Please model this.
Amino acid sequence: MAVWKRPSLTTKFHIDDEWWQASGKDLRVAVRGQLCRECQARFPDHRNLEAVDWVDPDTAEVLRADALLQTLRNECARKPEFISSGNSLVTNVFRIFLLNGNQPLTPSELAKQMPWTNGDVILRTLASGQIYMGLRPLSTLD
Model:
């Protein structure tokens, strides 16, 4: 029998696609909202966007990639305010997951990318019972 387990500093979190679907919200609208103003102006809508060619810097393989995410990763993320203490904690965490391809991270790992805060604060926010932007633990069942 599975038992619920309280999230801890070692619990991995991610953006839960199922939460977005169940809530009736569009993740692509949220992704577009993370773009800088200049890039938002280039993408007046989150729909009908073509995939773009992207060259993997490690393998030199050419891949088809999502235009919004590639713009976010290659242009917006280079700006110093993209992940900064001037943003809400939830915005920064959401952006970190967008940048890392939604690879699960613990609150402690997230804190390393936001040195102005700590893992305990991140954990309290993400495990508060309120789900922000689909940020959820991978599993709280054992």
Remarks:
- The chain has a mean pLDDT of 87.
- The helical segments are 17-23, 27-33, 37-42, 67-74, 89-99, 107-112, 119-126.
